[in-house]
Predict the structure.
Amino acid sequence: MKRCRESIVAILACCSMGTFAAQQRPNILFVMSDDHAAHAISAYSDKLIQTPHIDRLAKEGMKFNHVFAANSICTPSRATILTGQYSHINGVPVFNAIDTNKVTVAHRMSKAGYYTSMIGKWHLGTNPQGFDHWEILPGQGDYHNPVLYTREGSKKYQGEYVTEVITQLAIADLKARPKDKPFFMMMHHKAPHRSWDPKEEVAKKWRAKTIPEPATLFDTYEGRTEAIREQKQSIARNLNKRDVKGPYPEGLTGDALTRWCYQRYMQDYLACIESVDESVGEMLKFLEKEGILDDTVVIYTSDQGFFLGDHGLYDKRFMYEESLKMPFLVRWGKNIKAGSTQDAICVNCDFAPTFLSLAGEKVPAEMQGVSLTPLFDGTAPAQWRTSMYYRYYHTPGDHNTARHFGVRTTTHKLICFDGKDQWECYDLVKDPAELHNIYDKPEAQAVVQELKRELARLQKELKDTDNLYADPATWPKSSSYRQAPSAKK
Ligand code: CA
């Protein structure tokens, strides 16, 4: 479990420079949706929905099975992706604005000679920096009749649906791009974020369907800490009338009402995803038509995972698998074997180093992730990490989710709800659904101690040693959550 990060960085930097600097540098299309759980992509699980266009990336490229968010919530994940740093270093632990003076991967890609653009949901409380072109939703943005901001001003897309608007803007920008340089586009969908408002004709189709329930919809939380009982992200208790798009049926109570709420939630959530899948299809079709599909690294991911009734929950935040895990699919012509998979542990702080490595650039020391390019052949270097560090700060947040940190290895997970000094430990091999907390079991004490040592090692390595941001009073100010950035700045 103990690995020297410096040696990994040195080896991988060396590999990546040698591999990609000499050849023509690829375009990069990074498509990220918001709150799209991997188990709502048929390449990962076909129980809930068919996503043929997203699946094409897996069929013609690589499916990553263990990509995790360092802090499973929208704004912090976006900041980590841009900076290659954990929240305690990049200064975005909760819903606070990113420092506009911060040098991000966009600046570095631009300096490396790429045309850089950012289309769609930004949600970092400031105007994007380092991009040649940007067109963003203010704050969370709207599903219907969305407004988008550019440097020059704003435009309302009356009568249009946000996923389609973002797709058309991305295609228009790629058509207008300078052809003498490669492009780096971040295309960020708003969907399928709450309030899960699909296109009406797609919604109608999904409202006629019955969605399979997860095995843990009625999880009793036996043996778990207070955190999972005290949360307010429960299908049974916390979905409001706006979420279910209407009044609750008369006379329905208890488990029957929970089941009804689950159906209403999931029908709309999955309908939103159907439009995202169509968007991916449109983008692939466009790249093909332009004759640049195989020269473009196409990535599909989400800013974190999401609970789809798992453990009786919606939303994210907790370090449990459904929330922690990000879908991550990569297609890159013949450079990645079709239908390949990768099980190595990756973190969203690896994305920025990956982009730079593809551009033939050195990964700067300030970035805490490593390039994923050495994994593209399906193997993993012997020194690759075998554990990852997680930390969530937003207590009580919108859902009374207790702050926590933890470590996930290839076989186990240890979580500390540090506000209460309560712990959970799971054997992910024997108990992948994370139902049996073994933290206090006598037979688990050796592994618990080993995980605590690994947790301490990761905290030291990642410089999260001063308990920064554990207290809400120390959170960075100037939160612009739900506020539109000024188009004039
Ligand atoms: Ca999100």
About this structure: The chain has one domain: 9-385. The domain at 9-385 is CATH 3.40.720.10 (Alkaline Phosphatase, subunit A). The two ends are 47 Å apart (CA to CA). Residues 34-35, 74, 193, 303-304 surround calcium ion (CB under 6 Å).
